[in-house]
Design brief:
Elements (H helix, E strand, L loop, with lengths): L4 E2 L9 H12 L4 H22 L21 H4 L5 E10 L23 H5 L1 H5 L13 E11 L2 H17 L8 E5 L1 H4 L3 E2 L5 H21 L3 E5 L6 H4 L6 H18 L8 E5 L18 H4 L6 E4 L23 E7 L9 H15 L5 E4 L9 H21 L1
Parallel strand pairs: 1-10, 3-5, 4-6, 6-7, 7-8, 8-9, 9-10
Antiparallel strand pairs: 2-3
Helix pairs in contact: 1-2, 2-6, 6-8, 8-10, 12-13
């Protein structure tokens, strides 16, 4: 019988104990030894639970990517603030920053969050606290780049590696069964720059810094997942809307930075995650995947993860009818979504898997989630979705 492997994108719901410990850590009411003990036991739990559900490729839930407060919105990005030298923290809340940074034809630039085209179009819904779009978010301070970027997070990422490898070993698994998510250079560059002379110099510096994190992860035998929402999500964040050609030039620089950061790292230990941003907005201004998929495939990775279950992107499975997937690569489509509380039926999950398997071959499909589940849906629902993912993969495996 064919075995369809399963995984997820990275962030998983924090345990109540870890959330409480994290709050106490920022309040100064817990010492490092007690916090580390809770972090280790929580990571052990989340790894074992993934294994019990039947997932094949696991992580530590991104528990080492700690942010303040009880909800981890933005942890995928904010964790880097303490791992990159050359940053100075500010009091600016990135959700409420009123600054407008306009782009020009042929020179697209990112704007602040409130100026996104999706937010402009549905401003009433975004401003309504009952809409559910940004419910539960806390103010998040932004850093700015004031000096040369360096990587100062070796100890932190080594701790992430230890959490995962120890948890895998306790469940009879090895490093090849685990992955750790890490920020893309283009995402790391999405802060105010007061040091580098141009975009390419900034991206190169981010790439060289993040290379150190990628190397520590892969040297341990684990897979590194490059989290790169900057590749697709930035389309909505550039205002006014650029031409597709200009945008492709914009992200081509970011793809080049990823490949620079991956120099010397085996492609089979890399997977590349593309998403359109995990917030629960309408997403009517998302760029079609077909407009950028060829550039995504230029990344020197062994696998590519992307949203394929939510209502704005599920139809895009058809692009694999005409898009050639290199022979040594796999796709890791989302078959359950972070964007709805409805738990997908295993039959639907199986159908989604079978579509992709029919186009690229079952051995080249790993079933996953659209994006991270931590902080986006209730913990109980998140785990039910992962159970449905595993059950659907078993159904698809039997049929294939």
């Amino acid at each position: 019988m064919t075995h369809i492997r399963t995984t997820h994108v990275g962030s998983l719901p924090r345990t109540p104990e870890l959330l409480e410990a994290n709050t106490r850590r920022h309040d100064g009411t817990i010492d490092d030894a007690e916090f580390d003990s809770i972090l280790e036991s929580s990571a052990s739990y989340v790894i074992a639970r993934q294994r019990d559900i039947g997932l094949d490729i696991l992580n530590e839930g991104e528990y080492g990517h700690i942010t303040s407060g009880a909800v981890d919105y933005g942890a995928w990005w904010n964790y880097s603030f303490s791992r990159l030298g050359g940053l100075t923290m500010t009091d600016e809340d990135r959700w409420a920053n009123p600054e407008r940074v306009r782009s020009t034809p042929g020179n697209p630039r990112l704007t602040s969050f409130p100026d996104r085209r999706d937010r402009q179009r549905f401003n009433e819904a975004y401003e309504d606290p009952t809409s559910g779009i940004l419910t539960g978010r806390a103010a998040v301070g932004n850093p700015k780049i004031t000096g040369p970027l360096t990587y100062i997070g070796a100890q932190a990422v080594s701790a992430d590696v230890a959490l995962l490898t120890q948890g895998l070993a306790a469940n009879g698994l090895g490093p090849a069964d685990g992955f750790i998510a890490a920020l893309s250079p283009g995402s790391a560059a999405r802060v105010k720059n007061e040091y580098y002379s141009d975009d390419v110099a900034l991206l190169d510096a981010c790439a060289d810094a993040m290379h150190e994190e990628y190397r520590i992860i892969t040297d341990a035998g684990l897979t590194v997942q490059i989290d790169a929402p900057d590749i697709a999500e930035s389309w909505d964040q550039i205002n006014p809307e650029p031409s597709v050609a200009d945008y492709r030039d914009f992200i081509a620089k970011r793809i080049a930075a990823v490949n620079r950061a991956l120099e010397g790292i085996p492609a089979e230990q890399v997977r590349f995650h593309v998403c359109w941003g995990s917030w629960h907005g309408p997403h009517t201004t998302d760029i079609p995947f077909a407009d950028i998929v060829d550039l995504v495939l230029d990344v020197r990775a062994g696998g590519y993860t992307f949203e394929a279950a939510n209502a704005r992107h599920e139809h895009e499975w058809r692009l694999w009818e005409t898009t050639r997937l290199p022979e040594d690569k796999v796709i890791i489509p989302g078959v359950v979504s972070h964007a709805t509380n409805v738990v997908e039926h295993p039959e639907l999950v199986a159908e989604r898997i079978e579509r992709f398997a029919g186009l690229v071959g079952p051995e080249r499909v790993i079933a996953s989630t659209d994006c991270g589940l931590g902080g986006r849906i209730h913990s109980q629902i998140a785990w039910a979705k992962l159970e449905s993912l595993a059950a659907g993969a078993r159904l698809a495996s039997e049929r294939l």
